[in-house]
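re: that complex we talked abt at group meeting.

here r the seqs, copy pasted straight from the sheet so there may be weird spacing, ignore it
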Amino acid sequence: MDIGFIYDYLIASERLGIWIAALLTLAIYSFLYKDNPIYRFAESLLIGISVGFLLVTTFETTLMPKAFEPLAISFTGIFGSGGFGAFGSFLWLLVPVTLGLLMFTRFVPKYAWMSRVALALYIGFGAGASIPANMQSYILNQIDATIRPFLAIDSFAAAVNAAVILVGLISTLSYFYFSKAHTGIFGKAARLGTFYLMIFFGATFGYTVMARISLLIGRLTFLLRDWLGLIS
Amino acid sequence: MGFWQRARYIDRRIIFLLMLLGVGLPLLTNIGLPVRVTRDVGNVYDYIEGLNPGDVILISYDHDTGTLPEMIPMSDAILRHAFSRNLHLVGMALRAEGTAIGRQNFRRIGAEYGREEGKDFVFLGFRPEITAAILGLGTSIERVFPKDDRDIPISEIELMNTVRNYGDIALVISISDDDTPVYWVNYANARFKAKVVPAVTAVMATTFFPFIDSGQIRGMIAGLKGAAEYEKLIKIPGRAGRGMDAQSIAHMVMIGFIIMGNIAYFMSRKGK
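got the structure back, here u go
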């Protein structure tokens, strides 16, 4: 085949891709004017492609190489030269695959109870793995990080910083303690906690604005550079 | 109806239009506003700068395509820094869409520096079930990823002969648009003492500040701003630096609207 033709084809397909992406971008942004069928089409397309991609990727990169292929190999091995070893491998794979398949029994009300076996194991693993890890990350290490600065104060600024964090921790926790009325000194501490929370929300909102504008910058850069060629 | 009264009920499409101009015009003109490097990004750079050639960094693409404008500049800057320092890179993804993006980025930036796949870098692919995958990597990478993204068995890849688990990895970077780096902190760091750095969207930044003070993460790259700072540190201008002009002007437009909205509110209350 003529190399020039292939090159022209690749360039043309890239341009076509850019045009499709540009028109879909404009379709999504058309929502800013008002809701319309073109926007809804682009939105549905995005959701469909994302879900399709997830399914295909999971099937190709995980289910096939980690479950179905080894299962088929060990199954055929039982009848070949694999013998007892192949049978052991087959069972070793069959148990998790069966448990995974049990999850689909939820679609049949009569047999839905069977999915609880798999769910129980999954929740048990999740809780067992996450409770100690979360305890370490969110509680023990954070308490350590709050107290430790007081043991190594080397300047006035460090002392103020450590105090601000400790006061913030105690006052914010006070706000979320609901077994005592928020009155008196306790109420004042809880009130102070709300100010800390406001600062947190403000910072989060600021970062959110920054993130959303970054997405707009990304799309505009694409439109101005790749589609219209207005910037280098 | 007075000016301030009318300003309270301004058509939102006018605000969108002004925001579009606030972002679009700086992109066309390239103002070149300064970018100041923060401590968190500087710490990441310093840590990577302190690694020896041949040390291994694991980069996980834990994001979808919707946040590419923030993720790609970060990924590009980190990869350029790592490849320029002759570090070895292992890539993977805990989000399906991240697989395609990570694979493409590794090969694109690797080619820029003449790096060879399998010897200098490898992309392992995607694994669902975050907790199981991160915990599994602490025991054996080969058990979690028996083959790489090209379907080559791990045992046949030169780079992976010396990389078995977190013990052989100098740094884990999770490029993410959600709280997946928390899982890396909870399991890879707390359990296996792996050194973790989140490179996250700006939205997620405040989630990770407590982990910086507690030393559970080595630093953080947050959003387009973080990527622009990293580009400045490695002295390779990229798309994040240029985007920061638009970012700054757009913030000014927004601050202007907030001030105007508050004045309009109080002025209209005064008039009642």
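couple things i noticed - Chain B touches chain A through 60 residues (CB under 8 Å). Chain B is about 55% helix and 10% strand.
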